[in-house]
Every structure is written in structure tokens, then in C-alpha cells.
Amino acid sequence: MNLHEHLASAEAAIQAVKTLGDLNELETKLLGRNSPVGEARRQLGKLDPGDRPAAGVEVNRVTAELNRLIAERRGELTRVEENLLLADDSVDVTVERWTLSQGTEHLVQQTIDEVCDIFIGLGYRVEQGPEAELAWFNFDALNTPPHHPSRFESDTLYLDFGDPADEVLLRTHTSPMQVRYMQSHKPPLYVVVPGKTFRSDTIDASHLPVFHQIEGLAVDSGIVFSDLKGTLAHFAREFFGREQRVRLRPSFFPFTEPSAELDVSCFVCGGASASCRLCGGSGWLEMAGCGMVDPNVLDMAGHDSQTLSGFAFGMGVERLAMVRHGISNIRVFIDNDLRALRQFR
């Protein structure tokens, strides 16, 4: 086979190749040592001196043309393989993909945030207090005598019990922050304190050993009981609905005098049903304890009870959420049941 025929047949063979691997094998056959081109190069030395230049030019021309054809085909096959690879790696953005469901804040935290927002709108600050508390702040500074039943180990979880001078406990309410805040700030004082509280209670439908409270405190000159009632009435209507009625029912707390319980009118039956599952037919729902700050508490916090007055209130967060959403069992808040939690996104 002369070089002209070799070149003509090689062109068709190169175009017929479908992969880069096959092209590499064909390149060896067309330009390798045992190819017609390689044989022609070896024969150059045997030609007459006068014929060698023309023969050498022809060999180089055929070699160059074959290299050009092979290079062009290699480029075409490379682009084809790259396109196939890109097609395999492509992502169809129109196809719906599986994703993790978006989480949300727990109902307890949602309730805390909403209550705090209501009081922030009234000019209150939001503060935090220690969960491990001294007995002096938890009891003594709040006018609670040493013989009070709440100070027994059967009611309170102590970290260091026995020496009344430095007993450490897990706070039983958020009220210790009343004294702490009054000691570190000058009047006028308007503050709410959300946080965990701890009591030695057995878990049942309405009790948990760890639950949440929101404490409120206002201390200023000229504060009277009607300010307390107006503040809590505004809160109840903002939280439960504008049509809700409130009442303050006489009660007793060591650190407030006079003291009261805040009741909100039942928003399920309005008192019209004797079999109401929420209020039991009374028409009222107990929401919070409150009262005017006892003068002894003001004095122990370093303020003059002759010139200053104030009110305080404390409400259970779980209780607020249960009443508002019709939850009958407090265990819902700790069961981590997604079926329940997803209802309050």
C-alpha cells in the first residue's frame, strides 16, 4: 500500500472511531513503527540519493495530515465525552427534592415571648435570674418565715440544706428576682422575669417538677392597687382576646399585701355552661397570683417603703398555654410528641 492509498483509507477509519480509546489504538496502527508510514521511513535510506528528498517530503506530508485528522477527531470525541459527563452530573432544578422539615420554637417559648412582648409594650424590661438561688432571696427577703411549709425538703429541692445562713436551692419561683433587681437598680422599676422554677412535685396531669414562670414587678412613687388591676386587665385582653373580663379574687402571699388571684373569664363558654371542660361551669379561669409589694420586702431590698410602693405578679407559662390552647394534660410539654408540637408552629 503506497502512502496515498494509506492516507485515503485512514481518513475514513479516523471518522468511524467512536471513543478516545479506539482512536489511540488506531493512531498506533496509522503512525506506529509497523504502519505504512513507519515502513516508508525505514525505506528512505535504501533509495537513490536523488529520490530521497521527494520521498521524504511525501512521508512528512502524509504524517502531518494524519496527525491533523487524528487531532481533530480527538477534539470531537473529547467534547462528546465531556457533554455526556455533564449530562450525568446535571441536576434538574424543577424536580422536588426531599428536605428536612423546618423546626419551630416550643410552645412554652412562644408563650414566654408573647407575654414579654406585651409587657415590653408597656415599658417593662426583661431580665433573667439565677436558677440556683440562696434561701435568703427565695424565702427570707420575700417575707417568708423559717417555719413556712414551703421551706421543708419535702417541697423544695436543696443543693445545700441545713444552715439557714447559706442554704442553696433550686428556686421555687421567679420571685427572688424582685429583691435582686431592687438591690441593683434605682426606682422607677418595671421588669418582667421569665425562667425555669423547680419544686418537689410528682408528675401528673397538672404538675411538673420543672416548669416556667414569668414574674412581674413595678416599683415607683404613687403606685396603687388599681394600677395592678389595670395592668393585668390589659395583659389578659391582649393575650386572651379583647372581649375577656378579669377579676381579682382575695388571696394571700407572704411577699405581697394585699394579695389576689387573677381570674380571666372563660373564653370557651363565658360561664354559660355548667359542664364546660375548661372552667367547670364557674365562668372563670385562674391565671396568676399578684398583689401590692409588702413594705417589708421593699425595706429588705434597700428601698424606703414610706415613699415608694409597687405591685408584683407571677404567672405559670404552662398554665397560660394550656388555658389558651385547650391542653388538658401538662405532660404534653415534655413528651416530645411531634404530633402535638406540630400543632403550634
Spell out the key features of this protein:
BirA Bifunctional Protein, domain 2; alpha+beta; single chain; 345 residues
Q: Could you characterize the architecture of this molecule?
A:
The protein is of the alpha+beta class and 345 residues long. The protein has two domains: 3-89; 107-344, Bira Bifunctional Protein, Domain 2 (BirA Bifunctional Protein, domain 2), CATH 3.30.930.10. 39% of the residues lie in helices and 20% in strands. The longest helix is centred in the N-terminal third of the chain and has 38 residues, at 52-89. It starts with a helix and ends with a helix.
Q: Enumerate how many helices there are, as a single number.
A: 11
Task: Supply the CATH architecture of the largest domain.
Answer: 2-Layer Sandwich
Poorly predicted runs of 5 or more residues: none
The CATH C-level class name of the largest domain:
Alpha Beta
Shape: rod-shaped
Share of residues in strands: 15-25%
Number of strands: 10
Order of helices and strands: HHHHHEEHEEHEEHEEEHEHH
Whole-angstrom Rg = 44 Å
> Would you identify the CATH H-level superfamily of the largest domain?
Bira Bifunctional Protein, Domain 2
How confident is the prediction overall: mean pLDDT? 86
**Tell me about the biggest sheet?**
7 strands, mixed
Counting helices, strands and paired strands, the structural category is alpha+beta
The tally of domains stands at 2
Concise overview:
This protein is an alpha+beta fold and 345 residues long. It is built from eleven helices and ten strands. Strand 3 and strand 4 form a beta hairpin.
